[in-house]
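Hi everyone,

Forwarding the result from last night's run.
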Amino acid sequence: MVINGHTRIGRDNQIYQFASIGEVNQDLKYRGEPTQVIIGDRNLIRESVTIHRGTTQGGNITKIGNDNLLMINTHVAHDCIIGDRCIIANNGTLGGHVTLGDYVIIGGMSAVHQFCQIGSHVMVGGCSGVAQDVPPFVIAQGNHATPYGLNIEGLKRRGFAKEDLHAIRNAYKILYRNGKTLEEARERDCSISRRQ
């Protein structure tokens, strides 16, 4: 494993052979500014994972939260922000400036285009290409991955109350099945309180 640059790694992380963390990013605008990688606690970083340092245009930091699993050959580009308890399966790739919420699963051999935001509790199916933001709670799949359902099993495993699941289902129907615009959907009460 290689740990380079201004890299901070928290407690109880497991990092396997051939991982490269904190190396110079692949952004052509980068000129050697003192940017960094910050990794939280209890992450599992498997073989040949690459995590590049941030850029000045992206806030100087690439950040990985706590309790994540980055499987073999995962690439985390510059300025990515990964929440807590995410899984990126084998050969998953995050372009620069990608943000993952908490509890996100990225299927094997999937790629997320730069600047995309993936909401919490999302599951992206294997071999998918994500080229736009993905809202929370959904399952998205395909080349130009689009939401095609809710991640109900994942939400149940994380202790969401029946009332919250019902509210999420209603919001999904408004946005994806009833043909409403986002503004029309906002006019309806789709508030969700998540049980921790």
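The first strand starts at residue 2 and ends at 3.

Cheers,
N.
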